[in-house]
Amino acid sequence: MDFRLSDDQRALREGVRDLVAGRFPRERLRAAVDAYEAAGDGPALDRGLWRELAGAGFFSLLLAEADGGAGLGLPEAVLVLEEAGRALLPGPLVAGVLLAGTVPGAATGERVAGMCDAASLPALWEHPADCDEVIVLGAHAARRCTPEELRPVAVRSVDPLTPLARLLDVPPGEPCAVDVDRLRREAALLTAAQQLGGAQRTLEAAVAYARQREQFGAPIGSFQAVQHLCAEMLVRVEIARSAVYAASVTVDPVEVVGAKLLADEAAVGNARDCLQVHGGMGFTWEADVHLALKRAWLLAERGQPAAAGAEVLAEALADGHIAL
Q1: Are 146 and 133 in contact (CB under 8 A)?
Q2: Vertex 240, ends 236 and 246: CA angle to 5°?
Q3: H/E element holding 176?
Q4: Which of 192, 241, 247, 280 is 20 to 30 A away from residue 151, measured at CA?
Q5: 82-86, 138-142, 299-303 — which one is most confidently predicted on average?
Q6: How far is 42 from 56, CA to CA, in rounded Å?
Q7: 152 closest CA partner among 173, 131, 132, 124
Q8: pTM score
Q9: pLDDT digit string (tens) for 7-20?
Q10: Rounded to an integer, what is the distance from CA 305 to the centroid of its chain?
C-alpha cells in the first residue's frame, strides 16, 4: 500500500494553505482574539469567512460530484483539516465537513452544522451560538436538533476562539439516519489532522524564533539544548503525520485511535516546547504560542480523549488485534 501523496494531493494541500493564509492571516486571527478579550466570551463565528471557505469547496470535499461536491475521500479531507489546524482556523470545521450532506445548506456555508457527542452526559458542544442545526450523537443513534431545543449551560473555554456549552440532557429531536460509529471515527481522524497542523505550526514558530533571537552574541538556535528541543518537535510531527495519513487510508478503528493519540501528543508537546524556545516572550498574550497550546489542549479532549483511546488500544492488544 502506497501512503505517499500524489501530485493532486500535494496541489490540494498547497492550494488550501494559500487559501487559508489569504482568508485568515495572522491579522485576522489576532483581531478575533482581541474581540474575545474585549467581550469576555467567545467571539461570534465569522459568517463571511465561513461562506468564503464553502465557496472554495472546503465543506463539500466528501460529497459526491453528483451532489455538487468534490467527490474526494478521507485522505484529502485530512490534508485540508491539517492546514486548517496549522492556521488555528476557528469554527466547527469537522462537523462542517462531515455533515455537509446531512444538514441542508452546510456545504454552501449558508448554514452552520454542529455536532455533539452525547453518548454520556454531560457533553460539550462547540460554538453553541453559531450553529443552525446540531446533530447529537447518542450511544447507537443520532438526532437532529435546533439550537433552541438544546438547553445548554455556558462553559468557559480554555481556547478563546472556541466557545463551549455543556448539554445536561438531550431533547427527543428528530431521528437522523447517519452511521454513528463511522461519524465518531471520522471525527476523531479529522480532529487528529487539526492537531497535526497545530504541531507543524509550533515547530515552524520555534525554528523561526530560534534563528532570529540572539543571546551572548549568537542565535539561540546554535545552542545544543534548543536544537534538541526542535529536533524532538520534528520527530513528533513526522511520527504523527505517518499515523494520521495511514489511518486516513485504512480507516481502521484501532489505527484511527492510535493516530489521534500521537497527534494529540505532538500538538500539546510541541506547543509546550515552542513555549520553552520562546522563553518569557512565549508567555505573553501578544505572542501566538498560547493560542496553539490552548487549541491543542481543547482538541485533545475532542473526538477521542486520551484515556478512552488508551482503553481501546489496550483492549485490541489484549485481544491480539495488534502486536507490540
Answers
A1: yes
A2: 155
A3: strand 174-176
A4: 192
A5: 82-86
A6: 26
A7: 124
A8: 0.94
A9: 999 999 999 999 99
A10: 13
